[in-house]
Amino acid sequence: MTSTGDFETLVQRYRPELLAHCYRMLGSVHDAEELVQETCLRAWRARDRYDPSRASLRTWLYRIATNACLTALDGLGRRPMPSGLVTESEPLGPLVHGGEATWLQPLPDSLLGLGAPATAAIDRGSLRLAFVAALQLLSPRERAVLVLRDVLDYPAAEAADILETSVAAVNSSLQRARARIRAAGVLQEQVAEPSDAVQRSWVDRYMAAFVRADIQGLLQVVTEDVLMEMPPMVNWFTGRENYASFMGWVFAKAGKAWRLLPVRANGQAGFAAYRRGDAGVFELHTLQVFTVSAGGISRVSVFQDADVFAAFGLAQKVDG
After folding, report:
1. 279 phi and psi, to 5 degrees?
2. Which pTM does this prediction carry?
3. How far apart are CA 239 and CA 29, in angstroms?
4. Which of 168, 174, 243, 284 has fewest C-beta within 10 Å?
């Protein structure tokens, strides 16, 4: 690694998985991209000290990235979803803004190039919103240990080396982290994840019903225990009946004329929703990401945030 060109070529192959790693740790698209850049810069400056007999280039980069993330997280709060922060709401209660709360952001699949050979090492299940949200329940170090051990499959000794701690400390943190993740019910949910084609089929049916403002059609594709949340509002609720009440209110307030643009985020299907404004132009309203189980859509994550819209490159308006 003596020249810039050689170094960039070697590191480039790891950029997608480093971005996925930093995103899992930080829960922010912008912050993850910045930390990948910082990782590459730190690696370039330390390239003469890299010893391939001690660790692979991949492990060396993960060491730099993980510790950069831990430094960045020092003193920062978590990036939860509403369901991980407050108690369940009434579906027709007043919408309550989260104020200064900093929310978990969805990650556009396009930034990772999911599906390309270079991204084969990325565990897509560990990018799902529910899993990344559950990671936010952990302390930064517990988060790092769980990702290194259970997502990246590093042995305890290598994880300890990356984190510059003992194997005993890694094992203790991992035990606590696994218990919290199990309590959130995420690992079991991952096991039941259907294929991409099945997920897309459920979401396509949801989209067809949504553009018709067909609540009964929507109820046919959501599960009995469907969870809906919508940062930056702290409101969230579960169950078909609550979901139907809320969607009735949405269509009454925002109208029944919509244009939908399919998107993919966190390895999951979704869409950007545009509502028709007073001038007849369709205006960007929300970005919605879906968790799909074998029995239908089990979680609807709705985002209404300028930074999220920008990360997906969404136009503010589209023609009718």
Report:
1. -85, 5
2. 0.92
3. 30
4. 168
Give pLDDT tens digits along the chain (320 positions). 455 667 777 788 899 999 999 999 999 999 999 999 999 999 888 888 888 778 888 999 999 999 999 999 997 888 999 998 899 999 999 999 988 889 999 999 999 987 666 677 788 889 999 999 999 999 999 999 999 999 999 999 999 999 999 999 999 999 999 999 888 777 544 545 788 888 889 999 999 999 999 999 999 999 999 999 999 999 999 999 999 999 999 999 999 999 999 999 999 999 999 999 888 899 999 999 999 998 999 999 999 999 999 999 999 999 86
Helices in the chain by DSSP H: which ranges?
4-12, 15-26, 29-45, 57-73, 109-112, 129-135, 140-146, 156-163, 167-183, 186-191, 196-211, 215-219, 240-254, 306-311
Q: Whole-angstrom Cα distance, residue 316 to residue 263?
A: 15
Q: What is the signed CA dihedral for 20, 25, 28, 31, rounded to 10 degrees?
A: -90
Dig out the tokens for 172 from the structure.
Answer: 């203790």
The β-bridge relationship of strands 296-303 and 222-229 is parallel
Q: How far apart are CA 71 and CA 55, in angstroms?
A: 22
CA 116 to chain centre: 19
